[in-house]
């Protein structure tokens, strides 16, 4: 990526930009997100950011250029006593910034967060048709752990998901 990319924790003032980013990605014909063209309002996003900033087991991390926020990664630790070493992540990058290192930089920040918070496994779900994302995750070191048939209800259909995991080393 030629322009400077800044990776940082999301702040409440990012709510409008994050809501716009999510609505834009959700509206793409590829269907990359669980939601179909909708997302939280800016005020709902602001509340989520505040909650995540107060919660030690969660984080929202953004990728920002001079043009504004171009990527988002969310992390949430599993709260079951037997799997508190696992955190689930979600990633989205604005279409013009894909394949330019934004997603990889956000994944790197996720690993840093995991190390700092005692998380040894990061996991995610990705739609089987999202080949570009699967390629990114595999090149980063994520492994396929399973295939979940009809795992999500999306619109009027059920869709499959690939479960992938990354094992964090010290």
Structural features, described:
This protein is of the alpha+beta class. The protein has a single domain, classed as Gcn5-related N-acetyltransferase (GNAT) (Aminopeptidase). It is built from four helices and seven strands; from the N terminus they run βααβββαβαββ. The protein has a seven-stranded mixed beta sheet, with helices on both faces. α1 crosses α2. It is globular, with a radius of gyration of 15 Å. The mean pLDDT is 91.
CATH class: Alpha Beta
Q: State the shape.
A: globular
Distance between the termini: 28 Å
Low-confidence stretches: none
Number of domains: 1
State the CATH architecture.
3-Layer(aba) Sandwich
Question: Strands of the biggest beta sheet: in what spatial order?
Answer: 1-2-3-4-5-7-6
The number of helical segments is 4
- Name the helix and strand elements from N-terminus to C-terminus, one letter apiece: EHHEEEHEHEE
Oligomeric state of shown chains:
single chain
Largest sheet: 7 strands, mixed
The CATH superfamily bears the name Gcn5-related N-acetyltransferase (GNAT)
Mean pLDDT over the residues:
91
Radius of gyration: 15 Å
Q: What share of residues is helical?
A: 25-40%
In total, how many beta strands?
Answer: 7
Strand-pairing-aware structural class: alpha+beta
- Any idea of the CATH topology? Aminopeptidase
Content of β-strand = 25-35%
Short description:
The chain is an alpha+beta fold and 170 residues long. Helices cover 29% and strands 35% of the residues.
List keywords for this structure.
single chain, 170 residues, alpha+beta, 7-stranded mixed sheet, 7 strands, 29% helix, 35% strand
């Amino acid at each position: 990526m030629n322009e400077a990319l800044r990776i940082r924790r999301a702040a409440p003032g990012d709510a409008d930009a994050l809501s716009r980013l999510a609505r834009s990605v959700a509206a793409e014909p590829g269907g990359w997100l669980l939601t179909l063209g909708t997302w939280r309002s800016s005020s709902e996003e602001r509340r989520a950011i505040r909650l995540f900033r107060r919660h030690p087991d969660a984080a929202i991390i953004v990728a920002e250029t001079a043009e504004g926020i171009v990527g988002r990664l969310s992390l949430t630790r599993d709260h079951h006593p037997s799997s508190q070493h696992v955190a689930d992540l979600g990633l989205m990058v604005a279409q013009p910034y894909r394949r330019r290192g934004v997603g990889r930089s956000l994944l790197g920040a996720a690993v840093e967060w995991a190390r700092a918070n005692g998380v040894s496994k990061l996991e995610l779900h990705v739609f089987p048709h999202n080949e570009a994302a699967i390629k990114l995750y595999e090149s980063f070191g994520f492994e396929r752990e399973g295939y979940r048939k009809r795992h999500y209800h999306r619109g009027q259909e059920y869709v499959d998901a690939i479960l992938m995991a990354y094992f964090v080393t010290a």
